[in-house]
Amino acid sequence: MSGPAAGAPLCRLDEIADPGAKGFTFHEEDTLFMAFVVRRGEAVWGWRDRCPHVGSPLTLGDDRYLTRGSDHILCSTHGALFRIEDGLCLGGPCVGHSLIPWPVAVEDGSVVVA
């Protein structure tokens, strides 16, 4: 499953803290798709919720995807740090690997799948 189709609404932009992140889980029969959106101002980035180190989710389902300073994405399992803008791992057990992008956009104040 690759997630919802392009154009599918996810949430209102103002439902995501600024800066902040929000996770999404979708089910299709026996398949699970997990992803999250990071917000900074009016900009959003979407990522699959899967650490490149072992494939586990980055958080425990509590939307705590960012470091305390909200400057990096954090894997709560392994402590890996990822750049928000391109998902590149800068520290931890998967340095040089990247998160899998999930295309999202803001349209009329809503975050949608792009």
What's the gist of this structure?
With 114 residues, the chain is mostly beta strands.
Which tags fit this structure?
114 residues, 9 strands, mainly beta, Rieske Iron-sulfur Protein, globular
Written account of the structure:
By secondary structure, this protein is mainly beta. The protein has one domain (9-113): Rieske [2Fe-2S] iron-sulphur domain (Rieske Iron-sulfur Protein). The protein is built from no helices and 9 strands. A 3-stranded antiparallel beta sheet has the order 1-9-8, with no helix packed on it. A 3-stranded antiparallel beta sheet has the order 2-3-4, with no helix packed on it. The protein is globular.
Strand content: 35-45%
Number of strands: 9
What is the name of the CATH topology?
Rieske Iron-sulfur Protein
Helix content bin? under 10%
- Give the overall average pLDDT: 95
Written as H for each helix and E for each strand, in order along the chain, the element string is: EEEEEEEEE
Query: What is the number of domains?
Result: 1
- Major sheet: arrangement of strands: 1-9-8
Sheet with most strands? 3 strands, antiparallel
- Mass-distribution shape: globular
Structural class: mainly beta
Number of helices, counting only DSSP H or I runs of 4 residues or more? 0
**First-to-last CA distance:** 16 Å
CATH-derived architecture? 3-layer Sandwich
CATH class: Mainly Beta
* CATH superfamily membership: Rieske [2Fe-2S] iron-sulphur domain
Low-confidence stretches: none
Cα-based radius of gyration, to the nearest Å: 13 Å
